Amino acid sequence: MKTKDSIITLPQPALRQRSRKVGLITAEVKNIIKDMQAATLDWEDNRKHEVGVALAAVQIDVLLRIVVIRNNFDDKNDRTFLVFINPEITKYEGKIESSYEGCLSILDIYGKVPRHTKVRIKALDIDGKEIRVRAEGFLARIFQHEIDHTNGIVFIDHIQDKQDAFFRLTDTGDLESLDYKAKIESNDQLWATP
Length: 194
Ligand SMILES: [Zn+2]
Prior knowledge:
globular; alpha+beta; 7-stranded antiparallel sheet
């Protein structure tokens, strides 16, 4: 079983690579999904103020288009996940709103990221059956964040130039503005080299 230590973080180059589509859903693919869930839960168990809401396979260094999302991300005691294989956004709807996002692969940095408030998703479930989801609010944000991962994009890439969009989590679990010039702009761990 994988643990939090299997989760890769910036500047690991895989996080900026596009993942491949899953073909057959083999036993190996199912094992990867189990590993993703175990790593997310172990990460959560080792973080005081955060919930492991979702993970993309690239975050355990597997470049396949697989996303897992907590069934009930408002309730830490529900440790079950929904699985989305080859997920894609078929439609962006609603308006664009900025709100806080964190990432298991970008430790201790949060950002205020603009996202669509509603999206429609097409994916396969673990049995290879096509599923369609209409998501709004926080779930729509999660899908956009995770599907970005399958395309080699991390949330900070959307706010790279925004001086007031970066935050850190304090020991008491509050978000505190980060000094953009000192901690973000010149932090070469964060940014992809062109
Ligand atoms: Zn992430």
